[in-house]
Structures are given as C-alpha cells and as structure tokens.
Amino acid sequence: MSAQPLVSVKGLSKRFGEGEAAATVLHDITLDLEQGELYALLGPSGSGKSTLLTILGTLLRPSGGSHIMLGQDLNAASDRERTRFRSVHIGFVFQFHHLLPDLTAVENVMMPAAAAAGKESAAMRSRASDLLNAVGLADRRDYRPAALSGGQRQRVAVARALMNAPELVLADEPTGNLDRDSAMQVMALIERVNRETGTCFLISTHDERIAEHCRRRIALEDGHLA
Amino acid sequence: MRYALKIALRHLAATPGQSALLMLGVAMGVSVFIFMSALIGGLATLLTARTVGNIPHIVFEMRERDPRPLVAGAQVQMAVQKDLSRRAQIRVWEPAVRLIDATPGITAVSPQIRGGAFLQRGQAIVSVGVVGTQPDKLSAIADVGRAIVAGQAALPPDGVLVGQTLADDLGLRIGQIVRMRSERGRDRNVRIGGIFSLGMANVDRQVVYMNFHAARALFDLPSGISRIEVKVAPAQAAPRLADRLRRATGLKTTPWTDENEQLFEALDAQGRTGTIIKGFALVTIVIGIASAMLLSIVRRRAEIGIMRAMGASRRLVLGIFVLEGTLIGTIGAVGGALLAWLALAPFPPIEAVPPGGLPVDRAQGDYLVAILLTALAAIFASLLSARRATRIDPVEAIGQ
Fold first, then answer.
1. Domain membership of residue A149 as a residue range
2. Which of residues 37-76 of A touch B (CB under 8 A)?
3. Is there a domain that residue A24 lies in?
4. CB within 8 Å: A59 and B394
C-alpha cells in the first residue's frame, strides 16, 4: 500500500432540499480508501450508502467537505473534468446490471472505453474479450444481455467496470438482485480481481455474508460513520 | 461520432417495426412534398404552354405618333390631339424582321397585315379579323397547320382559312367562294381553302388567314405591314427580349406577359398554396421525428444514465440521438423520394396530358430539395429532443 490514500474525504456532508424540507443524508464523513483494498460499506437501508457511493463516484457533488482522489480535488473540478476523471479512474457495478440491451456482452464491456474515445478499436475488443474470459464468460461474448442469466449479467457488469483499468470500483449492492449461488460467484470474482489487479473495491451491502469477503469495513448509520 | 453512429443504428435495429413505421411516415410526408412540387410545377408548365402556345410572345407595332408637348410643367394647361392623320403601319419592315430574326432566343418571326373585314354569304354578313401572312409563316405563331380539320394548310393568292365556328355559322365548305369586304372598302371573292380549330373560341369564330400579298391589296397597304409577331424560347424570356428589341428597332413592343397578368397571379397563388402544403408536410415530419425521439429518450433514460455514469460525454449522448433522428429522416426521405418517383411514373408527360388529366411533371418533383429539407428538419427535430437526453441526471436515471 502506498503512503498516500487513493481517496480521501474530509468532513463530507450531503443535504437534499431547501429550508424546512431539507434533509441531511450524510454528516461529516471523513475516511480514506487505500489502493488495492477491498472494502465493505455496511449499513441499513436509508443510512446513506448509495449517496456516499455516488459522491465518491463523482456522479453527485457533496454539500460540504473535501473529496480528493489521486491527488485531485474533485469538488473543484468542472463537470466535464469530473466526467473525464470518472471514465478513466472509476468503475461502477450496480445492483441491477444496467447493461445496454442492444449491445452484446463484449460490446457492453467495451462501452466505457469506446464512449470516452468516441469509437471502438481492436485493442478495446481484445481487452474486453480478456475480461470476459477472466469472469468466465468467454463463450458468451456475443450474447445480448437478454440471453444471459442474472449472475452472468452481473459478471459482465463487473468486467465492464474493469474495462478502463480503474483504480477504484464502486459496487452498490452488486449481489442484491442475485440468488445465493450467483451472489457467491460474483463475490469470488471480485475478490480474485482485487487480488490479481490491485483494484480497490468499495462494496455497499447490508448482507453480512457479503461483507465477510471483504478485508476492511466501513459502517454507516443515519448518515454518520459508525 | 463513429461510436454514436453505431449506438444509433443499434437503437433503430432494436425496434425494427417502429423504426420502419417512422421512416414510412417520413416517406409519406416526402412523397406529398414531391407530388405537390410535381403537380404545381406541371400545372404551371401546362397553363403556360397552353396560354403561350398559340399566341405571339412579342408583338412589334409602330410607335404612336401623338404630338409631344414642348412645354413641361404643372402651370400649363394643354390638350394633346391623337394623331389619326396617318395609318399605323411599319413602313420599313424588312430590315426590322432581319434584325429580329438574327436575335438569339427568337424562334419564329411573322410579318403580318391585319385588318377588319366583313364576310358575306347570302344575306349573312359576319365581321372577321383578317391575318395576312406569308404562306411559309402560316404556322409560325399559332400552329394552324396542325389545327386544320378540313382542306389544306395552304395560302394561295385567292384562298383563305377560316375557323371551325365561323365555318359552322356561315355553313362554309371547302372550295366555296365567299365575298369579303375590307374596312378600307375593297371587295374581293375568296375561296375557302381550309377550316381550322385552334381551340380558342374567339379565334375559331372570328379569324380568317389570308395570303400576305392578297391582304396587302385588300387593306390598301402597298408596302408597309401592320405588325410583326415573334415567338421566343423560353417564353419567360419575352419581357427581356422585348425591351432589348424595342431599343434596337425603335418599334413598340408588347411581350405576352403584359397581357396575361392574371395568369401570373394565378400561378403565383398556386405556387404559394403548394409551398404552404409542403411546409405543413415538413412540420409534420419535424413533429413526428421529435416525438419519436422523445419517446426513445424516455424509454432509454436508464441506458443514457448508465452511459453518462460510465464516462460518456453529453456530446456523445447528443450525437447518438441526433444521428438516430437524422437516420430516420434521411432514410425516410430517400425512400419517400423513390416512392414518389415510382408513383409518378405512370403520369404522361405534360405535352401528352389528356383534357381533364392531372398535369403532373415528374421532372419537377424537387427530389433533392425534399431530401435535403427533410434531412435538415430531422436534424432540427432530433436536436430539440436530444438536448433533453443530455440533461438526464445519471443518478436519477439509474435509480440508485
């Protein structure tokens, strides 16, 4: 592990709405994420897990506090810079796979790189194929999402998150929509990728069995670090 | 843009029935556009051809010789007496005819002697207008040769050609001799050599064609002529040529357009009506494509959100939906143009349109204009809706 954390947030808060209708979802969050680590973000529904993930993923700006990743102050960055940063350094896995239904598995995996470059390339296709091979879906590369099982779709989603070789993958309830066997397969995959590539994963879950696969834990309760 | 194009094509291929229906809608709009262009253009061509087909495009006559006042100004009261002391005629006409004939754009020249006369058969006396023309110029202005329904299109010194209605009114037959008295009081017997039907009521009822030299004697014009009639190509060039030749010959010139202003007003109104209909067709296309794109964007809201979350720029998202709408518009426009081309094929050319038939001119279909305008309309409509796609918040769209 390097001396400088991959992500550093200090005094992070998020408030939705204005005046009396305002609701503060995150309060004074201060935490560091280290490179190569595997974190579980635990907490009951409504504790602010998803909000924290979207802020760390630069999809949402915090109401206060600082957010630094790879030495860059992301709160000070423009929307365009944040989009560019996100495409290069952050991957996402969602509870629902959110694969594009009109693209094949390999094209879905390629999407983050192709969308950033504005075109597909042989190198992208080759890397996407390697990633599908790594998640055990080499024989499903030309299948559309509708032809894949739930577990297979989520494995494609993991491969997609890794396409741009990001330093951080944010996974929001990645197994929440899967049966137990598929959930365990996906978690085993995440552990292996984390171990082999050194990619940092932050996995939001309220399932203790999923959290057991992670080396580090962050707990949220009513928007506060527990 | 290559990636945007790929995604746009995948969107279209994902719902082939809906995409085909949208393109068909655009194609129908474009077909209406093209059909209206072909119909209005064809109608204008037909009306113009039928109007100018049998009339002179420019008439040359002697300028009026009314005295010109030497004193100008508002303080002087004066009366100008019309000069009727001399006959209106072009005395030195042969050089003028040569000059006119040598002018580019002039297709036919016919020097004529004209006058009024009475045609008498038995107790019936009918007033007619006599056109004295050189025999080889008989069909130069009105195609009398093709309009002959009896006898021959020839003008021997003693022969005349009369219209069908006049012949019916007087019970004239080929070879019959009738008496003619000119406005100058000269009499002569003429033989009916042919009967024509030009389809113009006043001409078929009142005009008599006569040999040029016979008319000279009948109207007491030993050397001059009454007028020179010419045809030009294209007919629309008549005003410009008339102006130019007026200055060159010193004669009074009257282009056909001066006496057919109503036709131009009608053609103009017709053209504007067509433009409005074509405009509505384009507006329908814009609304159709914009609503289809909006529906597509609403349906693909989560996909747009996920792409944005994965780092796709707003520009890429905009590009995808603009290309999608543009593809629908352009493919529909090309298909519509092809459809219109095929649908217009059975219509006969304008010159062969039967009475009561639709004068649709396939060549005036404005195919490229229709395709170009539709493509532009599609881009505009797509931009309107695609801007909404770029404003989608990935967090809300993904529902996380």
1. 35-61+71-225
2. 50, 53-54, 57, 59-60
3. no
4. yes
Query: Would you call B311 and A95 a contact, using CB atoms and an 8 Å cutoff?
Result: no
CA distance A127 to A110: 8
Closest partner residue to B3 among A83, A94, A119, by Cβ?
A119
| pTM metric for this prediction | 0.70
Chain B residues whose CB is inside 8 A of the A120 CB are: 2-3, 6
- Counting the structural domains of chain A, the total is 1
Distance of CA A164 to the CA centre of its chain: 13
The per-residue b/e assignment along A9-21, b for 16 or more CB within 10 angstroms, e otherwise, is: beebbbeeeeeee
Q: Which of A58, A78, A60, A53 is nearest to A68 (CA)?
A: A58
Collect all residues of chain B within an 8 Å Cβ-Cβ radius of residue A57: 309
**Cα–Cα separations (whole angstroms), residue A215 to A162, A179, A212, B104, B262:** 20, 23, 8, 96, 92
Q: Count H helices and E strands in chain B, helices first.
A: 13, 10
Closest CA to A47 of A209, A218, A169: A218
Q: For chain A, how big is the Rg over CA atoms in Å? A: 17
Mutate to test the interface with B, among A53, A54, A59, A168 (most CBs of B within 10 A): A59
Classify residue A113: in a domain, yes or no: yes
DSSP state, B353? P
Phi, psi angles (nearest 5°) of residue A41? -105, 105
Of A54, A86, A120, the CB nearest to B311: A86
Q: Closest Cα to residue A157, out of A109, A103, A86, A111? A: A109
Q: Is residue A177 part of a domain?
A: yes
Q: Which of B1, B311, B399 minimises the CB distance to A87?
A: B311
CA distance A216 to B3: 39
CA distance A101 to chain B (A): 8
Task: Give SS3 for B197.
Answer: coil
Contacts of B16 in chain A (CB under 8 A): none
Does residue A5 belong to the interface with chain B, where contact is any CB pair within 8 Å?
no
Parallel/antiparallel/unpaired status of strands B187-196 and B177-182 = antiparallel
| A87: CATH | 3.40.50.300
Going residue by residue through chain B, which has 400 residues, state the pLDDT in tens, using 9 for 90 and above: 789 999 999 999 988 998 999 899 989 989 988 998 899 888 888 888 777 888 899 999 998 776 676 766 667 777 777 777 777 889 889 999 999 999 999 999 999 999 999 999 888 899 999 999 999 999 999 889 989 999 999 999 999 999 999 999 999 999 999 999 999 999 999 999 999 998 888 899 999 999 999 999 999 998 899 999 999 988 889 999 999 999 999 999 999 888 888 877 887 888 888 888 888 888 888 888 888 888 888 888 888 888 888 878 888 999 999 999 999 999 999 999 999 999 999 998 888 888 778 888 888 888 999 899 999 988 988 888 888 888 888 877 776 4
